[in-house]
Amino acid sequence: MLAAGCVLWRRAPHDTAHHLEICLVHRPRYDDWSHPKGKLKRGEPPHSGARREVLEETGMTCALGPALPTAYYPVEGRPKEVRYWAAEATGGAFAPNREVDRLVWLPPDEARARLTQERDRELVAALLSAVRV
Predict the structure, then answer these.
(1) Residue 50 exposed, middle or buried by CB count within 10 Å (0-12, 13-18, 19+)
(2) Cα 47 to Cα 53: distance, rounded to the nearest angstrom
């Protein structure tokens, strides 16, 4: 199964010690916190699928940045490959939907602590290495 997603970030909107914030989504189906991601449509390029999933799950448009590590893990006994990119939010607004009922923007340390899966936590470190704000 092929999927794509982003570690979506923005510049902190307030004058704080945090230079960036990371977007996390809560998926009620799994009761987890993760980065926006999803299955690719047949023939869809991974970078296009990543942008589409961010828009569908968060309501945000984004500018893709550097590629981040690809995640590999089993889902229901089948291998899953998720390609990720760093992506800066460029606009939009969140509205709860069928797949995602909550969205939060958190500083990196808080985002790392909130994420459910260890593989998602590793992407926070990759983002911080790839993006300079």
Answers:
(1) buried
(2) 10
Between strands 20-27 and 32-34, the pairing is antiparallel
What domains can be seen in the chain, in order of their start residue? 2-130 (3.90.79.10)
pTM beyond 0.70, yes or no: yes
C-alpha 101/C-alpha 96 separation (Å) is: 5
User: DSSP string of 39-90?
Assistant: EPPTT--HHHHHHHHHHHHHSEEEEEEEEEEEEEEEETTEEEEEEEEEEEEE
| Interval 76-97 mean pLDDT | 96
What pLDDT sits at residue 132?
76
Residue 8 is inside which H or E element, if any?
Answer: strand 2-11
Give whole-number Cα distances, 119 to 14, 67, 126, 127, in Å: 29, 15, 11, 13
Q: Are 2 and 40 in contact, with CB atoms under 8 Å apart?
A: yes
Q: What is the pLDDT of residue 15?
A: 57
Handedness of CA 44, 46, 48, 51 (dihedral sign): positive
pLDDT on residue 16: 60
